[in-house]
Automatic annotation (TrEMBL), chain A:
Record field: transmembrane: 6-23
Keyword entries, A-Z: Membrane, Transmembrane, Transmembrane helix
Protein name (database record): Cbb3-type cytochrome oxidase maturation protein
InterPro entries per record: Cyt_oxidase_maturation_cbb3
Top-rank taxon: Bacteria
Gene source species: Flavobacterium lacus
Keyword Membrane: yes
UniProtKB/TrEMBL annotation, chain B:
Compartments where located: Cell membrane
Membrane-spanning segments: 168-187, 207-227, 239-260, 266-283, 420-439, 445-472, 737-757, 763-788
GO biological process: copper ion homeostasis
Key word Ion transport present: yes
Annotated SUPFAM superfamilies: Calcium ATPase, transduction domain A, HAD-like, HMA, heavy metal-associated domain
Single annotated GO MF: copper ion binding
Keyword presence, ATP-binding: no
Protein name as annotated: Cu+-exporting ATPase
């Protein structure tokens, strides 16, 4: 039954990892605006169709920043 | 596509002015231009997300010249390094997904912009640009040209970088981590089976639980210790004392338990408690990102204004740097930032920000003009009399009311109850302790700690946050936005309601025009219509729009006498329009109402009266409210409307006229000195003092996104007649809290009977605590929603007939 030490240690490490991920996500400001990204994700396709037909040089700078 | 409406902005098209472009119809050139810009840049997708999402671009010539001034620009920028600049702009027009789309594709419209990101709830766009490729002024002008004019005010100039406090979220995250893991690890011991492997690993589990509980105990719950310490220090017993005591006792007892191997301790209940209470705190903290409750005149005033130098050249000057004697240039739609004297021949100033009065006021050369007005029409020149902070309106903010923090004046219901709860709890704990001391010493300690643990007022502390948090959300959905949850408690206590008149009980959207006097025939109307056509006076313009369209005639003689009226001759008929002095017909109290008198061919016909239009449902609302509240109307205007108001409103309503902003403030103060709980409902900047002084200041706003003075709540003007419902609802919310207090005390009694008899096992505690929390939360949520529905029709059923009973 000594394996229980290993298993519980692993489970705690996983949980700590998620806690860390959560805190990092909050700190980066992801949750400050919980509406706009949901709308924005629907745009990308339209943008590509449009930029293909665009005769002007296409801006190569990354369009979205998260 | 709807042919009747503009493809760009959706406004109904006036057939004569319709512009067809690219098979689409537009209401004006501005809208067409925006469409052109978008289609040339392959951005016409803009119209796919939402039908007619745009706004007509306004003429901004010269308005943003101040953005050439580098000091001002530097203040507005959020980030600046070498050539990379970042700016956040507030754009009130942001309202749909098309807006997000177009604003995030700004780089296609202007080179130099690298990225732009919209924050929809805050209505802000954050633009990163290269200062060599473009400038802030160019960006702002671009935004204006596509109908997204940013709102830049003096407030932007003053504000520093905002720090967002996210500590509550971290605390909840940590508490949830501890709570979840401890629950899982305590499970084997709940069943207390004396099995070989449980006994074998008991020590490991317990010490692991202890270790995991530490972050929750020391970090997540830290706020409660601080608050409890502060409240003891100030001698006020608030709810955080029994909470902190409960948590500390729980922790110590549990540690003792596992050290001496008495049992598994209460770590699961402790972390659960911390988690739920923090959750309650979060729930209560409903904020409206796009609203601001802390505005003062700074958010209305421009950053810079055009100054005319001695040599006649123009320059942008920062508003704070304006000095007495300076000459300023005020353009159309620009705000006058300081008191001064008009130099130009005439001006028409719209004081609707200040008073709520929609009709612009005519000023002549040499007249004093006050800060806060908006110039309508031509460019004017003025000479400064006072600097910004010394102007008539802005001086109001030097009053003490704006200096002190107002939060302290109110004691929450939870704190009031805990004043009795805390001593009673401690009393019970000590009595049981001494009782058991004579029987068994170790049980005595057990009982003592068990009482403090089980009575830890988790449910009590959760009641108010969850009730008020939910009420806040429900009210928010009904367009009544409150600053925070304590406002609801105060709302329930109000016994006097003070209304501002202009802009609050009247609408400033359309003013009804009525005609009094001898009837006018079609020919008279035709003459009148054509005489008005040449005049630029605001009243003439409105009357011109009011009269049905007539055929055009050219006046043979037309003269406009400033400040008096019009003298015109058409086809041999003479027409005189204007004030009573001009026509020399003095009818009774003519000066008290806004009137335009008409005289045709020397014969006095009558007058057009510009009535203040009262809001719909005003009479019903007042007669409904007058049953429970003392009602007062506090107006800055003259008493010309007294008779109408007396007729319309219940006789118990007090009417006070001719009040200056400071007098309004003092009036409220006097009411409060009489022991009244006053709610003030106002709109303009001149009510700002009264709103701050009153127990609750509610600002009524036609457009909640833009203008409202500092207040405790913002009410959308369309919801005006529902004030009665809101008041009633706040009372019901308090009732719900009391009921739920009863419920949580019942839980406490059950728990205490276990505790006093010395039988509180960790399992019982682990069941009772979450159970009580869940019951309370669901009870208050259901109750507040039921009340929200029930009280709805009550306002509608009300018949104005009861008004007679009242009188």
């Amino acid at each position: 039954m000594g394996v229980i030490y290993i298993l519980i240690t692993i489970s705690i490490i996983v949980a700590v990892f998620f806690l860390y991920a959560f805190i990092r996500a909050v700190r980066s400001g992801q949750y400050d605006d919980d509406y706009t990204p949901s709308v924005r994700m629907l745009f990308d396709d339209e943008l590509k169709i449009k930029t293909k037909t665009n005769k002007k040089p296409i801006q190569t700078i990354k369009e979205k920043q998260v | 596509m709807n042919t009747g409406n503009c493809f760009h902005c959706g406004i109904e098209i006036n057939k004569k002015e319709e512009i067809i472009y690219d098979e689409k119809s537009f209401c004006c050139n501005g809208c067409k231009t925006v469409y052109e810009i978008f289609s040339q840049n392959d951005l016409s997708c803009y119209y796919d997300f939402q039908a007619s999402p745009g706004a007509t671009p306004l003429d901004i010539k010269g308005k943003y010249d101040f953005l050439d001034n580098e000091d001002i620009v530097a203040k507005l920028l959020e980030f600046q390094e070498d050539t990379t600049h970042i700016v956040s702009l507030f754009i009130p027009h942001i309202h749909c997904s098309s807006c997000i789309w177009i604003l995030e594709n700004l780089q296609k419209l202007q080179s130099g912009i690298s990225t732009s990101q919209v924050n929809f709830p805050e209505k802000k766009v954050r633009i990163t640009f290269n200062s060599e490729g473009t400038s802030l002024k160019k960006i702002v002008e671009l935004l204006c040209s596509i109908g997204y004019e940013p709102y830049i005010s003096l407030e932007n100039f003053d504000e520093g970088k905002k720090v967002i406090d996210r500590s509550l979220i971290y605390k909840i995250g940590v508490a949830f981590f501890c709570f979840g893991n401890i629950m899982l690890l305590s499970f084997p011991e709940y069943f207390e089976v004396e099995e070989y492997w449980i006994n074998e690993y008991r020590g490991f589990f317990r010490w692991l639980i202890f270790a995991i509980s530490l972050p929750a105990f020391f970090y997540s719950a830290s706020g409660y210790y601080v608050s409890a310490y502060k409240s003891i220090k100030s001698g006020m017993l608030n709810i955080d004392i029994p909470i902190a005591l409960g948590i500390v006792v729980m922790f110590i007892r549990s540690t003792v338990d596992i050290v001496f191997d008495y049992g598994q301790g209460f770590f699961d209940s402790m972390t659960g408690l911390i988690f739920f209470m923090l959750l309650g705190k979060l729930f209560q903290k409903k904020t409206y990102d796009f609203l601001s409750f802390e505005r003062d005149y700074k958010s209305y005033f421009p950053i810079a204004i055009t100054k005319i130098l001695a040599d006649g050249s123009e320059t942008s000057v920062q508003v704070y740097e304006i000095e007495k004697g300076d000459r300023l240039l005020i353009r159309n739609q620009e705000l006058i930032p300081v008191d001064g004297i008009l130099i130009s021949e005439k001006a028409s100033v719209d004081y609707s920000f200040v008073t709520g009065e929609a009709v612009a006021i005519e000023k002549k050369s040499g007249d004093k003009i006050f800060a806060g007005g908006k110039q309508m029409g031509k460019v004017i020149e003025m000479e400064v009399l006072f600097s910004v902070s010394q102007s008539y309106l802005t001086q109001l903010w030097s009053n003490d009311v704006f200096q002190k923090k107002v939060d302290i004046k109110h004691k929450t219901i939870t704190d009031k109850i805990s004043r009795y709860f805390t001593p009673a709890l401690l009393g019970l704990a000590f009595v049981s302790f001494f009782y058991w001391l004579f029987i068994d010493v170790s049980t005595a300690f057990n009982v003592f700690t068990a009482i403090l643990i089980v009575a830890c007022p988790c449910a009590l502390a959760l009641t108010a946050p969850f009730t008020l948090g939910n009420v806040l959300r429900i009210l928010g959905k009904r367009k009544f936005y409150l600053k925070n949850a304590t406002v609801i408690e105060q709302l329930a206590k109000v016994d006097s309601i003070v209304f501002d008149k202009t802009g609050t009980i009247t609408t400033n959207k359309k003013t009804a025009i009525t005609y009094e006097g001898a009837p006018l025939n079609d020919f008279d109307l035709k003459l009148l219509y054509n005489a008005l056509r040449g005049s630029n006076h605001p009243l003439s313009r409105r009357l011109y729009d009011f009269i049905p369209k007539q055929t055009k005639l050219v006046p043979t003689h037309f003269e406009e006498i400033i400040g008096k009226g019009i003298d015109a001759e058409i086809d041999g008929n003479t027409i005189k329009l204007g004030s009573s002095q001009f026509l020399k017909t003095m009818t009774e109290n003519t000066h008290k109402k806004t009137k335009v008198h008409v005289e045709i061919n020397g014969e006095y016909k009558g007058s057009y009266v510009f009535n203040n239009q009262y809001r719909e449902g005003l009479e019903q609302l007042f007669s409904q409210l007058s049953k429970h509240y003392q009602l007062i109307i506090l107006s800055g205007d003259n008493d010309g409307e007294r008779k109408i108001l007396e007729k319309m409103l219940p006789s118990t309503t007090t009417l006070v006229f001719n009040q200056k902003p400071e007098q309004k403030l003092h009036y409220i103060k006097e009411l409060q000195d009489q022991g009244k709980n006053v709610m003030m409902i106002g709109d303009g900047l001149n009510d700002a003092g009264a709103l701050a002084q009153s127990n609750i200041g509610i600002s009524l706003s036609e457009n909640v996104n833009v203008f409202s003075p500092a207040c405790d709540g913002i009410l959308d003007a369309s919801q005006f007649q529902k004030i009665g419902f809101f008041m009633q609802y706040s009372k019901n919310a308090m009732k719900t809290i009391y009921m739920s207090f009863g419920l949580s005390i019942a839980y406490n009694i059950v728990g205490l009977t276990y505790a006093v008899s010395g039988n509180l096992s960790p399992l019982v505690a682990a069941i009772i605590m979450p159970l009580s929390t869940v019951t309370i939360v669901s009870f208050v949520t259901v109750m507040t929603n039921i009340y929200a529905q029930n009280s709805q029709p009550a306002t509608r059923n009300f018949q104005p007939a009861t008004k007679n009973n009242q009188a």
